[in-house]
Amino acid sequence: MTIRFGVIGTGAIGREHIRRISQTLSGGEIVAVTDVNQEAAKQVVEQFKLDASVYPDDKSLVAAENVDAVLVTSWGPAHEQSVLAAIEEGKYVFCEKPLAVTAEGCMNIVEAEMKHGKRLVQVGFMRRYDSGYVQLKEAIDNNFIGEPLMIRCAHRNPEVAENYSTDMAVTDTLIHEIDVLHWLINDDYKSVQVVFPKKTKHALDHLQDPQIFTIETESGVSINAEVFVNCKYGYDIQCEVIGEEGIVKLPEFPSIVMRKDAKLSTNVLMDWKDRFIEAYDKEIQDFIDSVRETGEPNGPTAWDGYIAAVTSDACVKAQQTGEKEAIVLKERPAFYSKNTECKTV
Ligand SMILES: NC(=O)C1=CN([C@@H]2O[C@H](COP(=O)(O)OP(=O)(O)OC[C@H]3O[C@@H](n4cnc5c(N)ncnc54)[C@H](O)[C@@H]3O)[C@@H](O)[C@H]2O)C=CC1
Ligand SMILES: O=C1[C@@H](O)[C@H](O)[C@@H](O)[C@H](O)[C@H]1O
């Protein structure tokens, strides 16, 4: 059975996912699209030569009989409404991060999904499918470095759009570290504190950049996470886990090594789309395969979306207060107790 997708939001990542489903992956096709900018939706149908209908809004697309699964790639504040509409119709949903912009919104989705009675939702936390993070997790789970004690990581973008604000360093950017790190070390977050170092001259007046987050976990692991979104030199993701018996670190993204003009050099990527291209392919292939084979998506759950939202809220509060803020989750329902095993091959 081919999974017939309806896409809500045909901007940057919407187009990327449409390209991969229609040209790279197997088992899925695009049959419906919508965007508040209807011209953008029409263009995408032409650009990718899709046999797809253009719908006026998310509700009509979700209700279309030939749509099996909904891909939500609109702006964050619009996600909750579309995901809830899809669950109401009993449709599968792949939703880009954030699942919803508030913890309450994520909880609405969690409750709707539990009421439906089986898992329908996967959240686009693609780093769990990145081969570097998968290797780190294998090393940690197999006790190669003993108990993790500290994590040092960095999320650097060369530049950001003018509308990028200080809180987006959390809700748009750090949210990837927030998701992947608790998964990596099988721990829960306890508190967060934020420091604003000297500001770069490349950041606009309204933006604090860089920022450093110190997150403490329930078992006492100390995480130091830098977000620097005007670093200029490239898109650079770093992560090092320091354990009692050793250290593991993300590999550098492969690049040719050049010897020229008395210099030895390698390239640094400039774009997130290239850095995680394989992870995006794998997460959506896993969504398609697991829905086809087991009737439930396999990847990051609505509960993972809720964890990310609660943690984001605490990080944003810590940006504002300068104090250490608690990260307090509700008890995990048994419905989400199964640890998802992202299929990465
Ligand atoms: N997993 C990842 O690495 C990434 C995730 N994202 C997430 O994907 C989402 C989209 O981001 P981009 O594609 O970069 O944004 P974008 O601005 O390029 O595209 C969003 C599109 O959604 C449309 N839209 C907004 N509200 C809508 C609604 N209610 N109904 C239908 N269409 C609507 C807009 O007109 C626009 O075409 C965001 O939530 C973002 O955080 C974005 C980039 C990378
Ligand atoms: O999700 C993403 C963007 O929205 C965000 O702006 C970037 O900082 C991230 O690296 C990228 O993965």
From TrEMBL:
It comes from the Bacteria. It catalyses: myo-inositol + NAD(+) = scyllo-inosose + NADH + H(+); 1D-chiro-inositol + NAD(+) = scyllo-inosine + NADH + H(+). Its EC number is 1.1.1.18, 1.1.1.369. Pathway: Polyol metabolism; myo-inositol degradation into acetyl-CoA; acetyl-CoA from myo-inositol: step 1/7. Residues 3-125 form the Gfo/Idh/MocA-like oxidoreductase N-terminal domain. It is an enzyme of class 1 (oxidoreductase). Residues 137-323 form the Gfo/Idh/MocA-like oxidoreductase C-terminal domain. Signal peptide: none annotated. Pfam families: GFO_IDH_MocA (PF01408), GFO_IDH_MocA_C (PF02894). Keywords: NAD, Oxidoreductase. Involved in the oxidation of myo-inositol (MI) and D-chiro-inositol (DCI) to 2-keto-myo-inositol (2KMI or 2-inosose) and 1-keto-D-chiro-inositol (1KDCI), respectively. Homotetramer. Belongs to the Gfo/Idh/MocA family. PANTHER family: INOSITOL 2-DEHYDROGENASE (PTHR43593:SF1), PTHR43593. This is Inositol 2-dehydrogenase/D-chiro-inositol 3-dehydrogenase. The gene is iolG.
